[in-house]
Amino acid sequence: MSQLDREEPLGLVVHSLPTPQESVVEPMRPSGRLKLLAIMLVCSLPVIASYYAYFVVRPQGKASFGELIAPARPVGNWVGTSLQGGSTPLASLKGQWLMVSVHGGACAADCQHHLFLLRQLRATLGKDKDRVDWVWLVSDTAPVDPAMHKPLGDAVVLRVDPNVLNEWFSVAPGKSLSDYIFVVDPLGNTMLRLPAVFDVADSAKARRDLERLLRASVSWDGPGRPQ
Hints:
Elements: H1 20-23, H2 30-57, E1 67-74, E2 79-82, E3 87-89, E4 97-103, H3 109-123, E5 132-138, H4 149-152, E6 156-159, H5 162-168, E7 180-184, E8 189-195, H6 200-216
Parallel strand pairs: 4-5, 5-6
Antiparallel strand pairs: 1-8, 2-3, 2-6, 4-7, 7-8
């Protein structure tokens, strides 16, 4: 192979530069969009599956102890009143599972027993108890005994109009709101009612019902309310 003559100029090939129009990033093609959507769908499948099991399969199932409420009753734009007299939108309770007891402010011995069972049932949930708030909704204007404040501890206590309570909750014929513990999901839907009085064996059944609901929502619901 011959060597290049030292005096012979080197030939340079100049490639044309792209025009400004050609240098603009090409929009994503339909096939690229489809791939992106497919990736997003795969990543969201666990959440979709939990929502399907929770909202579609759930009403057809049977609880071992409680009664499923179908259709679930969503919280409206209602307002409750704290024991200190401040207004609290009931929608602010969203973001946590709720176990709700409804009684008058006088709260006689049976009411106090119901609240005790409510607190104990929440405690049996172990590490999942931080995903659940226990709530006493006072259904009349009777004053609450100050001696009740300490036993209530971290309970949410609000005074709510009886008409609102009847809209949000559902009872069986011949029953009253105080006959139940109501379970409300983190979206504000009342979807399960448990008898307000139960023995040790029934307590285990009620806990299993709650554990099933908590497992079904674990992929999209965590402890504490979203900030």
